[in-house]
Structure formats: structure tokens, C-alpha cells
Amino acid sequence: MAHRAPLSIRRDMPVPYYEQLKRLIVQQIDTEGLQPGDLLPSEIELCDRYDVSRTVVRQAIGDLVNEGLLHRMRGKGTFVARPKLREQFIESTLGFFEDMTTRGHKVVSDVLSLDLVEAGSKVAEALSVPEKTLCIELVRLRSVNDETVAFTKSYVNSSSKELLADLRQAELSTTSLYRVLEDNWEMRIESGHRSLEASKAKGMLARLLHIRSGEPVLYIESVGHDGNGKAVEYFQAWHRADRTRLEMNVVRDRRPASTDFMHR
């Protein structure tokens, strides 16, 4: 019967100790069958087990926390992290609801407000309308598998009270906004532009997302257009960075290579 090689730091390798320790911790999680939420040994226990300094342990754990494999809870220890929610709607016209539900997740949205509002400068620019033009604002707190993951604001380019009434009756807590717009009002998003940047949660946003003030969030902006190029919707979303992993496919540009790079 084959025996698994002992898990230990190799002193004869040029790989930094903290990098080796990261791999050993991942192996330990696998060999011991640790599950998301299970507590990892303390820093002192890891120092003793692998005969390394506390600095090495902290560097390794810090990297694994940043990579989403572990998470820390102040005063409680370090735990195996739950897998992050994979989202690909950044690269398609699918909305958050459709992207998550097609992956088998349960999505529920707490509708905080839904009303006609005057477009401020940023919303007006995104929708290509004059400032103070009436549009429909939908504010939601979104949960996946019973866990709050995002706070969103959507602005629909319409002042129709009939559309507003329809949206209010549509049970948007468990229904896709995009599906209602497309099926009931022939407002189909065919193309758009989405941008992503890192930000920090503060004040009310942190409280809504159940995270500490100053913790990172992924901020997303998007403008969706119909087949004629008219802006249909503008949205802003703040996603918990500790629970979100955005993925996108890329392809090489088909343009002919520039002569500046022909010999590189």
C-alpha cells in the first residue's frame, strides 16, 4: 500500500517557506477533509507543526485569505472559506438573476424602493437624457442561497406609470427585471458596456451587506442598449468582494499585427 509523503517544509528548495506553507495548508485541508467553515489550526500550532516562524505563517495565511481560500474572524481564528460565487454576467447581456439561477442558485431580492425619480447628472448621462428626466429607479438588496451578496440600483429609461405599476406587480423579489421588460414591454437589452472597480464599503452600505466598514467591495456600472442603440437601463451594483468571483472569456483581437511588433 502506497504511503503519502509527509507534509513538511523542504529546506533544500529555493521556494520561499511561506509559498511552501501555502501549498501544505491546501494539502492539509484536502487530506483532512476540512469543509467550508471548519477552523484551521492556530498560528502557534502551524509554527510547531511545520517548524517555521510566525512571520512565515502569517504571510502564508494572509495570501490564502486574499486568494479567497481562507477567511479570518477577529477573536475566533482562521476558517476554510466557502467557494466564491462565480459570475459571468460582466461579459454578457444576462442580468444577475438569470446568471445565478442558470447555475442552480436561489436568488432573492429585497426590493427597498421602486418609484419614478428625476435623473441626476450621472444617470442622465448614462441614459442619454436631459437631467431631471423622469425614470424608474429600482433599489434592491440581493441574496444568493440565503446570503446577502450585493446592493444594486437600476434605472429604467422610461417615465411610464403603467410600466411602473407592472413592475410593482411583478414580484421582483424572485423575478428577473430584464425578463419583465423583455416579455411585457419589448424592451430587450442587446448590447452594453460594463465597468468594474475596487471600492470600500462604508456606513449604510457596509451595514446592508453585513460586513465591516472599510472592507472591500466590487463596484460595477452598466448601461444596456436595445437593438437600435437606445439606452434601456443603467445600473450600479456593489458586490461583497469576499463572496464574489467575476469571470470572463477573452479572445485575441483579429486585427492584423502591427509592424511595430512583427519581430518581437
Automatic annotation (TrEMBL):
One biological process term in Gene Ontology: negative regulation of DNA-templated transcription
Molecular function (Gene Ontology), one example: DNA-binding transcription factor activity
Keywords carried by this UniProt record: DNA-binding, Transcription, Transcription regulation
Domain HTH gntR-type: 15-83
Xref: InterPro entries: Bact_HTH_transcr_reg, Chorismate_lyase_/UTRA_dom_sf, Tscrpt_reg_HTH_GntR, UTRA, WH-like_DNA-bd_sf, WH_DNA-bd_sf
Protein's UniProt keywords contain tRNA processing: no
CDD domains membership: WHTH_GntR
PANTHER family the UniProt entry points to: MANNOSYL-D-GLYCERATE TRANSPORT/METABOLISM SYSTEM REPRESSOR MNGR-RELATED (PTHR44846), MANNOSYL-D-GLYCERATE TRANSPORT_METABOLISM SYSTEM REPRESSOR MNGR-RELATED (PTHR44846:SF1)
Name of the protein in question: Transcriptional regulator
